[in-house]
């Protein structure tokens, strides 16, 4: 069966013609594609092309020979795959460049670990101490503002903050010098 016959029968949904097309061109197209991309990718690419031809068989317009169409389509698909891969590599490199200093800095990992310890210690505080402490240190409110907000006396706010600090000092004793510097914890 020649290419013109294959194409005519294929456009009439002849599965035997599709089989002939596949048997005749699959291997040569894979070899051709492997000049541009990996063998595994070339097989997938040619399979996708063959599937595309079957799915569009009734509306497929080929202005050159079937053979030329297949090889040109394979080349264009390879070039698109290469461009897509290069695009993803550029994105990866851009992200890497933005973050590499952060990942190469040993302090980055230490500070992350320290932050986890601090958050855990704060979460383990009794609710009233934790809420008061958070408003004081992270909400940047004065003791009077905290007392008003919580509906307690200023002395109660001071007591809760001092108790929270005592508990945190014990739980974070290994990190106190750094904590004093970062968060203003009295040591």
From TrEMBL:
Keywords: Sigma factor, Transcription, Transcription regulation. GO terms for biological process: DNA-templated transcription initiation. It holds the Pfam family Sigma70_r4_2. Residues 21-85 form the RNA polymerase sigma-70 region domain. One of its GO terms (molecular function) is DNA binding. It comes from the Bacteria. SUPFAM superfamilies: Sigma2 domain of RNA polymerase sigma factors, Sigma3 and sigma4 domains of RNA polymerase sigma factors. Coiled coil: none annotated. Residues 119-167 form the RNA polymerase sigma factor 70 region 4 type domain. Belongs to the sigma-70 factor family. ECF subfamily. This is RNA polymerase sigma-70 factor, expansion family 1.
């Amino acid at each position: 069966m020649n290419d013109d016959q294959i194409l005519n029968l294929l456009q009439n949904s002849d599965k035997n013609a599709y089989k002939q097309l596949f048997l005749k061109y699959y291997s040569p197209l894979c070899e051709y594609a492997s000049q541009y991309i990996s063998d595994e990718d070339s097989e997938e690419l040619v399979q996708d092309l063959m599937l595309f031809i079957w799915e569009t068989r009734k509306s497929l317009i080929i202005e050159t020979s079937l053979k030329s169409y297949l090889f040109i389509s394979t080349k264009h698909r390879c070039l698109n795959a290469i461009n897509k891969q290069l695009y993803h590599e550029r994105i990866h490199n851009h992200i890497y460049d933005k973050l590499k200093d952060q990942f190469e800095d040993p302090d980055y990992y230490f500070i992350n670990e320290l932050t986890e310890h601090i958050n855990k210690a704060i979460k383990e505080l009794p609710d009233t101490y934790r809420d008061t402490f958070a408003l004081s240190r992270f909400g940047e409110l004065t003791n009077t503002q905290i007392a008003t907000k919580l509906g307690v006396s200023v002395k109660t706010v001071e007591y809760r903050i001092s108790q929270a600090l005592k508990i945190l000092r014990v739980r974070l004793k290994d990190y106190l010098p750094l904590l004093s510097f970062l968060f203003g914890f009295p040591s």
